[in-house]
Every structure is written in C-alpha cells, then in structure tokens.
Design goal:
7 helices, elongated
Length: 294
C-alpha cells in the first residue's frame, strides 16, 4: 500500500492542488456562493411555477416546433439559398442609400432608377403607334378594376379569401417569377403556386394565355374562382337579392318671374330667391339652403 502511495504521489499532489484551488475560489467568491444559497430556493420555485403554468400549452408548442423542424428539413436548400442571398441583398440596399451621405440639399435621393422597356415601331407606320411596355403588366388572376381599392385609403379590411396571383401559363413572358412558377421541394420538376398543390396530384391550370384583349381578363366563364380558393372550399354564396328601389327624385319647373312652383303633393310653393327680382345673393350655395323667412 505504501508503494502505491509512492507511485501515485504526482496524482495525489495534483488532486490536492485542484482541491486547494477550488477551496480558494470558494473563499474568494463567498458572497456569490452565499447569494446562490439564499436565492436558489426562490428561483427554483419560480421555475417550477413556470412549468406548471405552461404545462397545458407546452405540448402544443413542442408539436409546433417539431412541425417547424420538418418544414426546415424539407426546405433546407431554399433556406440555404436565402442565407446566401440575404447578405448580398442587404449590401445592395445599403448601396442604394449612399447618395444620401454627406449631402446638404433638402431632397436626398437614392441611386435607384425605374427604367421602362418600351417597344417602338421599327418602320414608319401610317398611324402613330403608342409605345408598349415589355412585358405588359399581368392582370389575370387579380381582382377586377372595379373591385380594387383606392390607394388613398388608409384602413386595413380583411383580405379576400383565396390566393391572388398572376394566373397565366407557366411559360408565359408575364411575371415569370410569380407564384405559379414556385418550385415544389417535395416533388422535383413540378412547379405550383401552393404547397397543397405541390403535394397533391393536381397541376396548375392557368385562366387564360394572359392576353387581355380577348375579353374577360380573368376568364371567369371557365369556372375557376377569382381569388383562387383552396381545394375543398365551399362555393361562394350568391349575393342577396336587391332591396326596393329608392324613391325617385322629384323635379319640377318654377316660374322665374315669381319663384313659384308646384310640389309633388300638388300644392303651390314660392321660393323668393328663385325670382329675377330677388334681393338675396343667388349662388349655388343658396340653392341648397331654405329660403329666408320660412
């Protein structure tokens, strides 16, 4: 036994040095250790109470995290591409604002130019042809013009149910980076606007070939709704029948000499400011006001 103590004397000295170091640190940090001993039970109680409060919702949160993990694994190539493009996009955005640096004018512009591609006739034509933008804007699949909101409105109503995107053929030159050409991660070689369409046996069907001169830009006669409802959605409810027509606006002629006229009830009325001899000011505002003295 004494021989073993002699053989392991180096290890015993190292253990004693480590123990002395730990003891010295505990002695120098006595206030911190005392604080842990004093506040530790209360912190443990708070943690236990927190777990008790989140116990009903914690399984749901964990299940959502599992779903997010599955989506992240499926879309790993897309996430990697996003991480590659995001720094470059940030650098481009910062470069646009360089024009504002060290400027003294009131208007500080950006290095941003909106250039339009114009198609002009190569040969002189009998009639002047207006320039056309290439490619023309896509209106197929969006709300009709009479249902679009005015940009000056500042409220935020609920968006219409369904998907609104450019619904022309996938090889059309309009909006080629639109939702209809999104690649399906789970089905290589397939492109569709939604994940449900990607993972089903359904394929994208355009509304028309995208040329609005054929009439209805949305081709609603084809039976596809606009906006596009997800599969299994109930059909849209029919609009309620119109109510009773408002009463017609009564109109009648008046005598400009005296200002008298016959009302809808058959009685004769006089409005003095309609006569030529009226002393009151005759403006369009006075026509909306009741006559004085009545």
């Amino acid at each position: 036994m004494l021989d073993s103590q002699t053989d392991t004397s180096g290890s015993i000295q190292a253990w004693a040095a480590n123990l002395a170091s730990i003891s010295g640190q505990l002695q120098s940090q006595d206030s911190a250790v005392a604080g842990i001993l004093q506040k530790g039970p209360g912190a443990a109680d708070e943690v236990r109470a927190l777990f008790d409060r989140v116990r009903p919702t914690l399984p749901i949160v964990l299940a959502n995290l599992v779903s997010i993990g599955e989506v992240a694994v499926t879309y790993q190539p897309s996430l990697e591409q996003l991480l590659v493009l995001l720094p470059q996009g940030t650098a481009v955005t910062q470069a646009v604002g360089i024009a504002k640096r060290n400027t003294k004018q009131d208007y500080m512009g950006d290095y941003l130019v909106f250039n339009l591609n114009l198609l002009l006739p190569a040969l002189p034509a009998p009639l002047p042809l207006p320039p056309q933008q290439l490619p023309p804007p896509c209106t197929t699949g969006f709300l009709p013009a009479q249902q679009q909101r005015v940009p000056t409105f500042v409220d935020y109503p609920d968006r219409p149910a369904g998907d609104v995107y450019c619904r022309v053929p996938q090889d059309a030159p309009f909006n080629v980076r639109g939702a209809r050409n999104l690649p399906c991660e789970t089905v290589p070689g397939k492109r569709a606007p939604t994940v449900k369409m990607c993972e089903s046996n359904q394929y994208y069907v355009p509304l028309n070939d995208g040329y609005n001169w054929k009439g209805d830009p949305n081709a609603t006669l084809s039976g596809q709704p606009v906006p596009q409802l997800p599969p299994g959605s109930p059909p849209a409810q029919a609009a309620p029948p119109p109510g009773p027509a408002p009463p017609p606006i009564a109109a009648g002629e008046y005598d400009p000499a005296t200002g008298t006229y016959v009302g809808p009830d058959g009685r004769v009325y006089t409005q003095s400011n309609l006569a030529r001899s009226a002393t009151e000011e005759q403006t369009w505002q006075t026509m909306l006001l009741p006559p004085a003295g009545r």
